[in-house]
User: What shape does this take?
Amino acid sequence: MRPRSHRRPRKAAGSTLIEILVSIVILSFGLLGMAGLQATALRNNREARLQASAVRLATDLAERMRGNPAVALRRSPGSNPYLQSHARAAPAGTTADCVAATCATPDQVAAWDIGEWLQRVFAPESGLPDARVTVCFDDRPYDGDGLPVWRCSGTGDILQIKLGWRRASTDRSRTGGTAFDRVDDADSRPSVSVPVTTEAAP
Assistant: This one.
């Protein structure tokens, strides 16, 4: 009989260089995907914050106008400082400071209201980027598709506060300077449109 040959068990082979490289590539794709999700989440969070801020600003101005109907109901922009057409910057100053001193007339209150409010809208750090403001009498604030429009009919008894700002485009194929929707684009629309119903004081 032949003697049995005792074979030594083969040692388990370690990971090869190719396997390590494949693992690194897979891990890299995963990390890139996580980075992309983080960037998208940050962008969406910023847009939501700006939208909420714009709604708060518009609501604040609406309350101020309701509190001062003697001026808010005037049709002429020359006598009604609340009315704004395509405002792109805050005024240099106001005629009266209703915090430092008492405003004696509704006109002084209105001038202070709109001046202080526009300062907040266009504030470099906390305001809306590249903002646009329109406040007008408008009974047709939406087009036939139900989308808000900048133009004002100038008719009706309802005031509209329209706000827009530079926003990230929903078209992800746009890059660089075209990656944003701007308020001066031909197809620009208000991002926030708040109606204000004001009754004359008795």
